[in-house]
Amino acid sequence: MRTVIKAVVVVAVLGAPVLADWDIGDPHKMHYPQMPDEQYGVDVMAGPYTDPGTQEIMGFFLADDFQCAQSGPITDIHIWTAAPADWINLGIYADIPAGESSTGYSTPGDLLWQTVMAPTAERLWAQVDEEFIDPRTGDILRTNADIWQLNFLFDETDAFDQTAGEIYWLGVGQSFDVDGNGQIDIVDLTEWAVGTSFGWKSSADHWNDDAVYTLLEPPLVGPFSGGSGGVGVGSGDWEEMLYPSWHEYADQSLDLAFVITPEPATLALLAIGGLALIRRRRK
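RESULT FIELD:
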């Protein structure tokens, strides 16, 4: 399993601008893009949280499955969220199919790759009126008005190499080191206490099994470990997510909004090929 801890990555291809944002109709290399649900969507908490009743500090780490449609490195991951965030834990997991899982539904298996990083780029995607929910209970924690697209680009040497036809899980959660200074300190604790939290958007584009969540319990002092000891990505005790009873999709599968896209080199080659075709037509 490869672990990568890094700050913002800037990718340049043949002197072109950074290829960061993903738009509808752009290439992808998963079963199909799971777009954010702008009509009935919810924001699912995916990060550190202080329970207002018990004052217990915990964190939610979410994951959703996808099927690889093109072998090669995953150098572009795009997710839709309730707000920007400075430091995000990302993980790629193997799949445990429903028939092999003790839960009766498929879940993430071995952690194959992880990184802790800030988004390479982010943009406001849409403005909506949505509920921000606790994945355990479906309780509404607050409302939210924005959908953000967060874009993560990786160098091929740091990227996970996926195989066409295989099923994987993408895991996402905000780092407990909210400000990214390398410590779990009073700034982080204060932000959790006042309700700062990170939410992953739901998608109406269902594929295979439900998204899942797991609980993390962080160490409250000491250096940021980048993924070990419960600070980073989740492992074990995965619970499936369904829409809460009050929702239009009550008790149906809840999926999350993301897309895995071709690496920038592939896009550059496509662009060059398109330019060459235009030139040939002009002759």
